[in-house]
């Protein structure tokens, strides 16, 4: 039986454990330690994983916990362990219907709760900015009020089904273009400027959606605190507390280089809690036992005071209690399944030159050129920190290719890498001689550590070299990249991460008219 914990019944040792989200417990020894600490009620949360062997560990975590332990995951395009895939936020906002985000939030929560997960790292409240890395497709819009409209609806949907949210990445910093997985960068914004732009979604979510949680970023705001990045800065975190927020605050991953290269694991953990975070997402390279010892040392040294410890644990326990709310359904009802399908369909946008419609000519001989993700066979395994969702792996693109050939008889299709070899480039150029029209099916991926969020220069040059024959570009991902192809007759664009292939092909055949609108200004 699961019962809520009472702060007055917890020892200091248990309270310290409640500050930690155990992450990526891949070593057997670490798993045993986490399970033992859960039995002692000395773990606040666990990051769920979806690898086959990790699922067994998570099942044991759920069986072991007799209190509402937070089970956390990123769920920006749906619950990774579920069946429903929703668009990235940019795609959701393309519909122009904020209430869709409410229904999609419910879908994510129902699937997650069925599997025992109850805390989402998100939604993303960042304001889109052209050139920003690891971010654009994950934002709803470049307008703070539009972002707020969608964030609020999604939070309401998630929380209605008993999920804790951690709206991210506070306090914003929309003038930052770097990826903090790779490095630290300083925002020019002061507190007043943040409140007038980037923090608007947080303030509105507090007032209109009873916001349950926030995740702090690793950006430096020297106009507010020239010593510590936001996640380690009491001055920055106090901004939202002064606005009346009394919910859970958790750090973004302390494995990012903005932290690891500048502070060190032990110092960062103590500073994070001292600054006002209630929970930490430790460096996944550091085991639970070491993380716990570092935090206990910070307490013994007075870096974490008793008052701060109790305040943090109170927020953690209140969040845990909220997850005890039962979801409205054990399975996704048909009306919500339809919302998912409609959201994917409505995320598709057609940008047409005057005098053209979305339908391709039926008479012309067509060559489809499709991108797939590069293969790096020399890499032995991947880090669990990296995004495992790769929508344009070769086998997936092969399926799109076969569908295109089936729907456009007499056409041909070539698959090339997103960083194509010169032989791939030459092959495309040689094949174009045989065809009347070319359709490029391209993508750019927003993910951590890539250091890029755009179409590669090689692919851009390949398209420009064949612009006179290019009948259409299908572009999945960062919408700002469309600006590279202003002379193309038809551009069909959609959010990275959504199931849109079927509808895109229907649009090219003239069987479906895309209705989506870009939620950013180009």
Describe this structure in words.
This protein is an alpha/beta fold. The chain has 2 domains: 15-322, TIM Barrel (Alpha-Beta Barrel); 348-509, Rossmann fold. It has helices spanning 12-18, 28-39, 52-64, 89-94, 99-114, 144-160, 191-196, 200-209, 234-242, 257-260, 265-275, 288-300, 306-322, 334-346, 394-407, 422-432, 457-465, 501-509; strands spanning 21-22, 45-47, 70-73, 119-120, 164-165, 167-170, 213-216, 220-221, 225-229, 248-253, 279-281, 349-352, 366-372, 412-417, 437-443, 470-476, 490-494. It has a 6-stranded mixed sheet with strand order 12-17-16-15-13-14, sandwiched between helices. Strands 1-2-3-4-5 form a 5-stranded parallel sheet. Strands 6-7-10-11 form a 4-stranded parallel sheet. α5 packs parallel to α6, α6 runs parallel beside α8 (200-209) and α11 (265-275) crosses α12 (288-300).
Shape: elongated
CATH architecture of the largest domain: Alpha-Beta Barrel
CATH superfamily of the largest domain: Glycoside hydrolase, family 3, N-terminal domain
- In CATH, the topology of the largest domain is named TIM Barrel
Please indicate the percent range of residues in DSSP E strands (runs of 2 or more).
5-15%
Radius of gyration over C-alpha positions, nearest whole angstrom: 24 Å
């Amino acid at each position: 039986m699961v019962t809520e914990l009472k702060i007055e019944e917890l020892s200091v040792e248990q309270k310290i454990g409640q500050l930690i989200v155990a992450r990526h417990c891949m070593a057997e020894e670490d798993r045993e330690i986490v399970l033992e600490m859960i039995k002692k009620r000395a773990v606040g949360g666990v990051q769920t994983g979806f690898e086959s062997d990790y699922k067994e560990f998570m099942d044991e975590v759920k069986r072991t916990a007799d209190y509402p332990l937070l089970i956390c995951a990123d769920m920006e395009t749906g619950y990774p362990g579920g069946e429903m895939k929703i668009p990235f936020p940019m795609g959701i906002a393309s519909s122009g219907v904020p209430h869709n985000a409410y229904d999609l939030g419910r879908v994510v929560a129902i699937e997650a709760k069925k599997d025992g997960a109850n805390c989402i790292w998100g939604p993303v409240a960042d304001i889109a900015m052209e050139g920003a890395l690891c971010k654009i497709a994950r934002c709803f819009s470049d307008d703070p009020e539009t972002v707020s409209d969608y964030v609020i609806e999604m939070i309401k949907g998630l929380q209605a089904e008993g999920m804790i949210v951690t709206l991210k990445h506070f306090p914003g910093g929309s003038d930052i273009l770097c990826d903090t997985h790779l490095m630290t960068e300083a925002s020019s914004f002061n507190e007043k400027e943040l409140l007038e732009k980037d923090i608007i979604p947080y303030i509105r979510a507090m007032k209109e959606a009873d916001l349950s949680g926030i995740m702090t970023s690793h950006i430096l705001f020297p106009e507010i605190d020239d010593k510590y990045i936001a996640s380690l800065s009491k001055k920055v975190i106090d901004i939202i507390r002064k606005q009346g927020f009394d919910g859970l605050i958790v750090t973004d991953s302390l494995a990012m280089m903005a932290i690891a290269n500048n502070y060190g694991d032990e110092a960062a953990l103590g500073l994070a809690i001292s600054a006002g975070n209630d929970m930490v997402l430790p460096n996944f390279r550091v085991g639970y036992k070491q993380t716990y010892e570092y935090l206990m040392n910070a307490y013994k040294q007075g870096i974490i005071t008793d008052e701060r410890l109790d305040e943090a644990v109170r927020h953690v326990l209140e969040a845990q209690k909220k997850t005890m709310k039962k979801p409205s359904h054990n399975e996704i009802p048909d009306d919500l399944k339809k919302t998912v399908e409609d959201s994917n369909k409505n995320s598709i946008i057609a940008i047409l030159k005057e005098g053209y419609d979305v339908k391709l000519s039926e008479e012309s001989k067509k060559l489809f050129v499709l991108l797939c993700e590069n293969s790096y066979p020399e890499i032995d395994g991947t880090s669990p920190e990296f995004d495992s969702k790769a929508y344009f792996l070769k086998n997936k693109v092969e399926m799109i290719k076969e569908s295109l050939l089936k729907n456009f008889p007499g056409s041909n299709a070539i698959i090339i890498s997103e960083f194509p070899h010169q032989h791939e480039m030459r092959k495309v150029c040689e094949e174009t001689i045989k065809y009347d029209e070319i359709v490029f099916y391209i993508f750019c991926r927003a993910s951590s550590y890539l250091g890029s969020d755009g179409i590669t220069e090689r692919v851009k040059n390949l398209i420009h070299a064949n612009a006179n024959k290019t009948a259409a570009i299908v572009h999945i991902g960062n919408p700002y990249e469309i600006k590279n192809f202003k002379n193309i007759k038809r551009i069909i664009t959609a959010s990275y991460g959504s199931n849109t292939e079927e509808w895109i092909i229907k649009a090219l055949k003239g069987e479906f008219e895309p209705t989506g609108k870009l939620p950013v200004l180009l």
